[in-house]
Design goal:
Chain lengths: ~290, ~350
C-alpha cells in the first residue's frame, strides 16, 4: 500500500517536472553555456575559433564600453528608484485611499500601456516629446516658449520611456503587500503617538518591503535589459549597454564579443541585485512569495 | 473616587443611520468598565470615538476633566488594544513594545528599562527578541497589552481582544486580565459581546443595544435585577414568556400558564413579558421555601421532555403541566438528581422576586 502510493507519487512528480526541466535545459541552460563558451573564443587569422580572454580584455581596454556599462548600471538604479517614488503613492492610493470600485477602474487604466506593447508606447512618447510634438506645439501655441524645447533623443526622454514601461511592475507587487496590510496597524501606530512621517517610514515602508524589493528587482531587470526605449528615445547621445550587444551581434557580427558583453551584463545585474538584497536585509525567498 | 472618563450625551450619525444615540456615562478612576453588546450595536464606534479615530456628531468626551474635542488620537491620554491586536509583524517583541516610547524620544536606557519592566509584568520575560509572528495567541495578546500599557495611559481601551482566542485560553486570559488590571490600577474600558467576559472582569458593565445604553450596573445587579427586557434576555440564560393578561392578582402566559401576579407592587401596569432564569428554579422544593409565605413563592409541576447534558451547565427541557409552555431548568450535577429521567413529573418552586416582568 505504502510503496504503491509512493510509486504513484513518483509518476505524477516526473510528469510534472519533465516540461519544466525541458524548458530549463533547452531554453536557459544550453544557450547560456553556449554563450559562455563562445565568449571565451575569438576567431584567429584563419577564421578558426580559439580560446582567449580577448573579448573581456577588449571590454576593459575600450573606455566607451565600460563607460556605457557603468552608465547603464547607474541609470537603471536611478530609474528603479524613480519608479518606486512614482509607483508607491499610486499603489497606496489604489489600495488604502480610494474605494474598491474606483481602484478597479484606475487599475485598468494603468494596465492599458501594457496591452499595446512597448514599441507602440515608445512611439507614443516620441509623438509627445518631439520637436514638433504635442507638448512643444502646445507650449508654443499658448506662448510660453518661442523655440521648441529639445526633449527627445536625450537621457531625459530615455528615462521617461524606461519609467513608463516599467512602472507598473513596481505598482503591482507593492499593491499586493499593501493590500495584505491591516489598516489597524496604521491606527495602532497613530494611537502610540507616531507622526505621519513615523507611520510612513516605520510601519508602511517596512511592511511593504518584500513587495518593494520584488518590484525593484523586476523593474531593474526590465530596464537594464531594455533595448527599445534607449534606442528609440535615447538616440545617439545615450548609449545603453544592450545597444553594444546588439551592435556586436547584428552590425559587426562579432558574436563572441557580443556573448562576452551579454555575460558581463548578466553578471552586472545579478551582482547589483545581490548587493541590494544584502543592503536592504531582504531574502530572495521571501521576496518571491 | 473621581471620574476619569465622562461621556456626555454622545451621538454618532452616519449617512443613513445612527450608531450611537445619546450615550451618557462616567468611569471611575482605576475601574474596570465593560460595554457589552451584540455585534453592530455601536460599541466599537463608541470606543473609536473615545480613542479619537472617529469624530462624535454630538456630545463630548471628557478625560480627567478635559474635553477631547479636536484632539487627535496620538495626543489623547488613552491607548487602545485592537481586536486583531495589530502587532507590527516586521518587529520583534521588544521593538513592538518600545514603539510608542521611541516616538516620545525618550533616552534609550529609560526605554529599555520600561520595556523590560512591562514585559516582566505580563510574563514575557525572555521573549524580547522573538518575532511576534512566532508567538502563541495568548503571548501575542500580552504583547499587545504591554505595548499599550507601557505608554502609561490614563485609560486603556480594549476592543474584544480575547475574541480570537480558543475557549480554554480565553477563560485563562479573563482571569489574567482582571488580575493585571487590579495590579497596575489603570482604568480599563473593555468592549465585548461575550457576557461572561464582561461579568467576570468588570466592576461596572454597560449593556448596549441599538446605539443606546440599556443599563449600567455592577455585574451582579445586571444579572439579578435587569431593568429592561433586553438586559433580562441578553445577560445570562433565561426563559422568556409572553404574557396575555395580567388582570387582578393573576397573570397568564400565551401558552396558558396561569400564575399569581408577579409584580407585587404593580409598578408597571402594562407588563408584557416574563423572564425566568433556569438556575432560579428550585427542584423538589419544600412546601415552604426558606419559610416564605405563599404570596412570596410560586410552586408548580412540570414534565421532563429531554435532558440537555452539558456538564455543569446541564439543563432540563420541560413542559409546565396544564399549559403548552416550555421551561428550561438548570439541573445541578449532584447525587440528588441522578435518577431523573425523561417523562418524569417534577415539582418546581421559585421565589416571586425571581420572576422578572417587563
Amino acid at each position: 500500500m505504502n510503496s504503491n502510493n509512493k510509486n504513484n507519487f513518483n509518476i505524477t512528480f516526473y510528469l510534472l517536472i519533465v516540461p519544466v526541466l525541458i524548458w530549463l535545459i533547452f531554453m536557459i541552460v544550453i544557450p547560456h553555456v553556449e554563450l559562455l563558451i563562445s565568449s571565451f573564443q575569438i576567431e584567429d587569422d584563419m577564421g578558426e575559433r580559439v580560446f582567449s580572454f580577448g573579448n573581456y580584455i577588449e571590454f576593459f581596454s575600450q573606455k566607451i564600453y565600460w563607460l556605457t556599462f557603468v552608465k547603464t548600471a547607474a541609470y537603471s538604479i536611478a530609474v528603479t528608484i524613480l519608479a518606486f517614488i512614482i509607483a508607491f503613492p499610486i499603489a497606496f492610493y489604489l489600495t488604502k485611499v480610494t474605494s474598491k470600485k474606483n481602484a478597479g477602474f484606475l487599475m485598468l487604466l494603468l494596465l492599458i500601456p501594457l496591452w499595446v506593447g512597448e514599441l507602440v508606447t515608445v512611439y507614443g512618447w516620441m509623438v509627445l516629446l518631439g520637436d514638433h510634438g504635442v507638448i512643444n506645439h502646445f507650449l508654443i501655441t499658448i506662448g510660453i516658449i518661442n523655440e521648441p524645447i529639445n526633449m527627445l533623443y536625450n537621457n531625459f526622454s530615455m528615462v521617461v520611456g524606461l519609467l513608463y514601461m516599467s512602472m507598473l511592475f513596481m505598482v503591482i507587487p507593492v499593491m499586493s503587500t499593501l493590500q495584505s496590510m491591516d489598516d489597524s496597524l496604521i491606527e495602532a501606530a497613530c494611537d502610540l503617538g507616531a507622526s505621519k512621517w513615523d507611520i510612513f517610514t516605520k510601519i508602511i515602508i517596512p511592511y511593504s518591503m518584500p513587495g518593494i524589493t520584488s518590484g525593484a528587482i523586476i523593474v531593474f531587470m526590465l530596464v537594464i535589459g531594455d533595448y527599445l526605449a534607449p534606442n528609440l528615445l535615447g538616440g545617439k547621445h545615450s548609449l545603453w549597454f544592450t545597444e553594444q550587444i546588439y551592435n556586436d551581434f547584428l552590425s559587426t557580427f562579432n558574436w563572441n564579443e557580443g556573448a562576452a558583453f551579454g555575460f558581463l551584463l548578466l553578471m552586472l545585474s545579478s551582482g547589483i541585485i545581490w548587493l541590494a538584497l544584502k543592503l536592504s536585509g531582504q531574502k530572495l525567498e521571501k521576496v518571491g512569495s | 473616587m473621581d471620574n476619569i472618563l465622562e461621556i456626555k450625551n454622545l451621538s454618532k450619525h452616519f449617512d443613513d443611520f445612527t450608531a450611537v444615540k445619546n450615550v451618557d456615562f462616567s468611569v471611575e478612576e482605576g475601574g474596570f468598565f465593560s460595554i457589552l453588546g451584540s455585534s453592530g450595536c455601536g460599541k466599537t464606534t463608541l470606543l473609536r470615538i473615545i480613542a479619537g479615530f472617529q469624530q462624535e456628531s454630538e456630545g463630548d468626551v471628557i478625560i480627567r476633566g478635559q474635553s477631547m474635542k479636536g484632539i487627535p488620537p496620538e495626543k489623547r491620554p488613552v491607548n487602545i488594544v485592537f481586536q486583531n491586536l495589530a502587532l507590527f509583524p516586521m518587529m520583534n517583541v521588544r521593538e513592538n513594545v518600545a514603539f510608542g516610547l521611541k516616538r516620545q524620544k525618550l533616552n534609550r536606557a529609560v526605554i529599555n528599562s520600561k520595556v523590560n519592566e512591562m514585559l516582566e509584568r505580563v510574563g514575557l520575560h525572555g521573549y524580547e527578541n522573538k518575532k511576534v509572528t512566532d508567538l502563541s495567541g495568548g503571548q501575542r495578546q500580552r504583547v499587545a497589552i504591554a505595548r499599550s500599557l507601557v505608554m502609561n495611559p490614563s485609560i486603556l481601551l480594549l476592543d474584544e481582544p480575547l475574541g480570537a482566542l480558543d475557549r480554554k485560553l480565553r477563560e485563562h486570559m479573563k482571569v489574567e486580565l482582571k488580575l493585571l488590571q487590579k495590579e497596575i490600577g489603570t482604568t480599563f474600558v473593555y468592549i465585548t459581546h461575550d457576557q461572561s467576559e464582561a461579568l467576570v472582569m468588570s466592576d461596572k458593565v454597560a449593556v448596549m443595544h441599538d446605539g443606546q445604553f440599556e443599563q449600567i450596573d455592577t455585574p451582579r445587579n445586571l444579572y439579578k435585577n435587569p431593568r429592561t427586557s433586553f438586559v433580562a434576555g441578553f445577560v445570562g440564560d433565561t426563559n422568556r414568556f409572553e404574557l396575555l393578561s395580567t388582570e387582578g392578582n393573576s397573570m397568564m402566559t400565551k401558552g396558558g400558564w396561569k400564575m399569581p401576579q408577579a409584580d407585587l407592587n404593580n409598578k408597571t401596569p402594562n407588563i408584557k413579558e416574563l423572564y425566568i432564569r433556569p438556575e432560579a428554579l428550585i427542584l423538589n422544593p419544600a412546601n415552604n421555601l426558606n419559610g416564605l409565605n405563599d404570596i412570596e413563592q410560586l410552586q408548580f409541576e412540570v414534565t421532563i421532555k429531554t435532558i440537555l447534558f452539558d456538564g455543569s451547565n446541564t439543563k432540563l427541557s420541560t413542559m409546565v403541566n396544564g399549559s403548552s409552555e416550555e421551561l428550561l431548568i438548570s439541573l445541578p450535577q449532584n447525587a440528588q438528581f441522578d435518577g431523573i429521567e425523561e417523562g418524569n413529573q417534577l415539582k418546581v418552586g421559585i421565589h416571586r422576586n425571581d420572576l422578572k416582568c417587563f
